Amino acid sequence: MGLQCLFATVLAVLTTSTSASVIQGRNVSKGTPLRIPMRQLSHGPAYNIKVGNPPQDMVMLDDWTWHSTWLYTPHCKGHYSVPDCVLPGQNFFDYGRSSTFRNASDADQTFLGTDYTPGAPFTVSFGTDEVCLPNDKDPKGRCQQKVEVEVSNLAFQFPRVEDIGGIIGLAPVLPSFNATYYPAAYQFMKAGQLDSVVGWHMCGRLKSKDSCQGQDCLTVYGGTVTSIYKPWTMQYHGIVVSPCINAGNLKLTPPRDNYWSASWTGFWIGNKRISLATPTTAMPDPPVPSCSSIHPIAIFDEGGLGRGAPVPLSTFGTLTSATKATEINSTSALPLNEGKQGL
User: What is the rounded CA–CA span in Å between residue 79 and residue 155?
Assistant: First the structure.
C-alpha cells in the first residue's frame, strides 16, 4: 500500500478531536518522543517491536491506513498449530508462549482485498498483551501492558513467507470507535506515555540518511524532530469521513471510513489541469447513487505498492503520453491492490 520512502514529511494526530491550533501550541509533556528508524521492505517501511512475556521480536509494517496492531499467529483452519499454520522462515507471534496474553471478547473482523490474502478473507480475532516500542534511549523499549491487538484467524495457511510478521496501524480514531480500532500508539497515548502527534520522514532520495539514523525512513511517536521540520510551518487538513470510500471494490466487515483522507482540489501534468471527475467505467458495481457526485478524496498511504502521488484514472492517457510509458500485463509478478488496475 502507498508511497515508498521518498523525501517527504508528514505530521498527523491520531485522535481527530484535537484542532490544529491546539496541536501547534501543544507542549509535548507525556514522555519523550520515540524516534524509530525504519527499513524499506517489500510491503513498505518496517521496524521491530517486542510483544508478550517472555518478549518475542516482531517485524512490523508501519501502515497509516491500518487501524490496529495485527500480529501473524499460528491459528488457522480452526486450530492453533505452528507446523500447520506457519511456513518455515515466517516471523510470527506465538501467543501460546506468552504468559500475559489474554483473549478479548470483541467480535472477529474480516477484510477482503488485502495484500497478504488477495481474493481470500483476511479474518482477525482480538487479544491483549504487553507491547514494547523501540526507544533509542532505552534498549528495553517503551512498554505498555494490556495493549489490544489483532491476531490472525485464517481459514488457511499463509500462501507464502512474508518479510513482516505484523502491521502497526496508524489510522485516525473517530469518537465512536471501540478498542478494536485503537492503534498501539493511540493506546500508549491514552495511558499517558506519548503525546498524540506522530511524524514521518523519508530519506530514500536524500543525499544522506543521517536524519533517518542511517535507515530509509524515520517515524516519530509522541512529538516531532524540529531539526527535520518545523511544526509551526505545517498546513493542516481535516480528514474526510465518507462511506463512499468503501463503495468500490474494497469490501470490509465491518466497513471502515477512518483514513487520513483529504479533499482533492486539483491535479496537473505540466500546465495541463486534469479533471478529477470519476469516469463511468470506474464507478462502483453495483452503483451507489450518493457517491456519484461527491468531491474527490485522496487517501495518504505509505506502504510498498503505491509508487508516488495519487493519480486519477482520467490522467492515464496524458500521463502515459508525457512519459512515453507502455502499459504492461497486469498478470505480472508485481502485486496489485484491490480492484481492476493497470500498470
Answer: 9
